[in-house]
Amino acid sequence: MLKIRLQRVGRRHEPAFRLVLTEHANSSKSGRFKELLGSYDPRKKGEALKAERLKHWLSKGATPTPTVQNLLVRKGVIRGKKVHVAGAMAGAVPATEEVKNDTIEAVETPADVSPTE
Predict the structure, then answer these.
(1) pTM higher than 0.85 for the full model?
(2) How far, CA to CA in Å, does 90 sit from each of 23, 65, 68, 102, 113?
(3) 78 lies in some domain
(4) Which CATH number belongs to the domain containing residue 91 in this structure?
(5) Does residue 47 surpass a pLDDT of 90?
(6) What is the pLDDT of residue 12?
């Protein structure tokens, strides 16, 4: 399955991103991508998108990440609504609480102790 995602480039504290087409299993940090589809600089609010190639790959079934979809909607490359993108910590907090509750319940249930002679 093909994904259109952001690949971070640039220096420390100076982020810039490439829009790349890659397999879903490849990490965005690996550097292995099929095609470079544009760039995005959040500090300068500059986007250089290859709209025709983006539309081509979207028609072939490539799926954009939620952040990329919001960027494409804002630039008018695709039509639709923006997707709500939760922060990295927003989804992680409830999952850890559930794990803690399960481990507490497992510890509190004592095993049947039978007297041995």
Answers:
(1) no
(2) 26, 17, 19, 20, 43
(3) yes
(4) 3.30.1320.10
(5) no
(6) 93
